[in-house]
């Protein structure tokens, strides 16, 4: 099953073409690394295939759904239930503890928090952050903050996990640790993963590499 299909996607900012008539198909269970220099369009492409931004031309299908046919409410629900997203700068809420940050999607979905806590602890143990439950983000290392962000994104078992430079702010040891976790999530949990990165060291941990150059894609 194709989890992501981009067909002839074009995205412009004014007269500047950021994504130039590109197409890409990502199958269920793949771990795809999209490589490119800053300004190549890779983060914009991630925004488009996640439904966070609209393309000017072309079509995007995510988990079998045509994103252009969904309204804002339907897109929001889809992003909360079928898609996990992890950012380079972690996006943790500083006034919330680790536990509260991880449980945030559950609160937003108005799920039974008590019912979800057992699975939350399982996830946090796998991420090696169960001992950090009551700490706040400013007391965590960069690697710990990114593990919290990943735990939050996989708590509701998304079909697809997208990551925007997930190791860009980490040292080499933390970077390896995070990539080991992502490989495990892909292999054991069968989560389809798409990451954008400028690092070949990070890209090769996936199962497939695609290069973005000036808004166009080239397979390796």
Structural account:
By secondary structure, this protein is an alpha/beta fold. The chain has one domain (2-219): P-loop containing nucleotide triphosphate hydrolases (Rossmann fold). It is 35% helix and 28% strand. The protein contains seven helices and ten strands. The strands form two sheets. The protein has a six-stranded mixed β-sheet, with helices on both faces. The chain has a four-stranded antiparallel β-sheet with strand order 2-1-4-5, covered by helices on one side. A hairpin with a 2-residue loop joins strand 1 (2-13) and strand 2. Helix 3 (98-108) runs parallel beside helix 5 (142-154). The chain starts with a strand and ends with a strand. The mean pLDDT is 89.
Task: Write a short abstract of this structure.
By secondary structure, the chain is an alpha/beta fold.
- What can be said about the biggest beta sheet? 6 strands, mixed
Side-by-side strand order of the widest sheet: 6-7-8-3-9-10
Q: In CATH's first tier, which class applies? A: Alpha Beta
Order of helices and strands: EEEHEEHEHHHEHEHEE
The helix/strand class is alpha/beta
Query: Percent of residues in helical segments?
Result: 25-40%
Mean residue pLDDT: 89
The share of residues in extended strands comes to 25-35%
Q: Which residues sit in consecutive blocks of at least 5 with pLDDT less than 50?
A: none
Kindly identify the CATH topology.
Rossmann fold
Number of strands: 10
Coarse morphology: globular
Relevant CATH superfamily = P-loop containing nucleotide triphosphate hydrolases
Tally of individual helices:
7
Q: Any idea what the CATH architecture is?
A: 3-Layer(aba) Sandwich
